[in-house]
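REQUEST
  id: r-88c1
  op: predict_structure
  target: GFA family protein
  payload:
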Amino acid sequence: MHRGSCLCGAISFEVEGDLGMADACHCQQCRKWTGHFLASVDVPRKMVTINGQADLNWYHSSGKVRRGFCAKCGSSIFFDPTDQQKHNWLAIALGAFDTTTQIQLHKHIFVAEKGDYYSIADGLPQNPY
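RESPONSE
  id: r-88c1
  status: 200
  body:
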């Protein structure tokens, strides 16, 4: 069982089972949403339990995606494709986990949009989009 929460604890979540592969998204939207880039892991929806739904707000950043954050403290937590028939997963920000994840990043995505103030030098694959 993996557990996590927002900064103030109003929203918490549990993930039943092992976590999959994590990635780091460097697109402009993720950078603006998190203040840097989004390191997250995709988890099948059926494995996730979210508590504190009253404080969970969603921002529809496009017609295809909504982003979940805490209305009290502003923590960026969830990245959710709106086409749930096609995408039966929910991405969870790695920084929101309270327990160890026991996973590593496996790739960087949208590096064509990355900020100019940092380098990616970890040797992982870098996808332009």
